[in-house]
C-alpha cells in the first residue's frame, strides 16, 4: 500500500525519537552531527512517498548506524502481489532458485539452479542493486539481511533496473550442469503446500563430525524431541540407507521426504553402529527444535554445537560431562560450533568460559555491576512509549514488572578477559556471518583464555550488550522497531572477530578437524 510523504515521515519521526530517548548512549557513540545529517537525508528521500519497503530502505541504514546488533528495524512482509513467485537464496555472491511458487515454472534439479537473468536483467545486477539497499556494518551482515528480504525486495529491484513496473510473467534464464542453459516463464503464484517432515536433521557422512561408522547414506545429526522420528526410535548417529526400498544419500532423502504427503508411512532401512535395523515413520508437519545445544564425539574431537545461549542447569551439567568424557576417551581437541548463533543469555557464556579455562576468567562477566541510576533512566524513558509499544509483548510486561535492580544497564570495568589454559590441548571455534552478540563475545573469550583458533567467516557485526528489546510499532506502516533498552557504553570498543582460518562457513568443520576443506 502506497503512503504519502507525511505518513512515512511520521513513522520516521517515531524511529528517530525512540533512538534519541530510549537508546541515547548509542546516539552518543555514533555522534550527534552524523546522526542529524542522516535524519535530514532520510527525510528528503521520502519526499515522493511510497510503501513500507521504501521506508525500510531509507530508515534501516539510520537504525543500523546507531544500532548495537539488538536495535533494528524489522523488514516488512512482502506486499500482496509484489513477491517474486519463487524460492530463492543468495549463495557466494550469486542467486540460486530452489523452487517455484507456480506450476508453470521450469523444472529444476535437486538443490536448485543458478539464476542468470530475469527479464533480460542479469542476476548479478539484481543482487548488487539489492545489497546496495541493505544497511549493515559488514559485508557478511548485509549478505544475511539480503537473504531475509529477497522474497519481497527482488520484485521492486527488477522494476527499478528495468525502469517499469513488472507484474509477471517473468522470463528467466537458468544455468545447469555442463554449461547448459535453461529458459522458462514463471507466471502466477500458487497456493502454499505444507511439506512433510521427519522432524530430524541429517547430512552426508563426510560432513558429519559425529559419524563413527563409514559408508554412504544420510547420517542423522539431530532429532526433534517429541517429533515423528523421535517417536519411531530414530537417534542421532543413525545412518539412513534407504527409504521405501530405494537407496538414498543425504540429498536423496531430503527430496523424497519433501515430495511425500503429511501422514504418509515411510519405511527406513538404517545402520546403527554397524548393526542393520528397520524403522517405520509416519511423516508429519515440520516442528521447531527446542534444544539449544548438542554434544557429539568423533575419534579426534569433541563437538559442542550451540544454537543459542541459555543459562540452564542442563547446559552446565552437559559441559561437565563433555569434559569428563573427553578426558576418559583421550580426546584433546574441542570444536565449539557457533555458526548461525544469534546470541542469548550472557550467563551461559560465563559457564562455558569457566568450564574451558583452567583459571577464573577475570574482568569478564563477573566484573560487571548493575547500576540503579541507569535502571531508573531506562524506566523513565520507556514509560512514555507505552502507547506505541505492543501491550501484549511478554518481554515488555516482564520488564515493567521486574523489581528494582533486576533489570539495568550494565556498567563496570573495561573488557579484559583473562584466563590461562584449557583442559583441551586444542580448541577450535566455528563462526560465520550469522554469528552475533554474546556468541561473538564467547568466541573472543575462548581465543584469549583457551588459546582457541577461530575458523570460518567474519561475523556479521561487533558485539555489544543490552537488556530487553522494546518493540515499537510504527503507526503508518505497521513495521516494528526493536530498541535495546540498555547498552554497554563503558566498553572501550566493540568486540570484532577476524577468523584465524578464513574459510567458507560450510567448510569450517572440516577445516577445524584438519580435513581438506
Fold and architecture overview:
By secondary structure, the protein is an alpha+beta fold. The chain has helices spanning 5-21, 24-30, 32-45, 52-66, 123-133, 139-162, 228-232, 250-259, 313-328, 346-356, 372-383, 394-401, 438-449, 508-512, and strands at 72-73, 86-91, 94-100, 113-118, 121-122, 170-175, 181-186, 196-197, 200-203, 218-223, 239-243, 246-247, 265-272, 275-282, 284-285, 293-297, 302-306, 333-337, 368-370, 410-412, 426-431, 453-456, 469-473, 480-484, 501-502. Strands 2, 3, 4, 5, 6 and 7 form a 6-stranded antiparallel β-sheet that branches. Strands 9, 10, 11, 12, 13 and 14 form a 6-stranded antiparallel β-sheet that branches. Residues 363-371, 386-415 and 488-492 have low confidence and may be disordered.
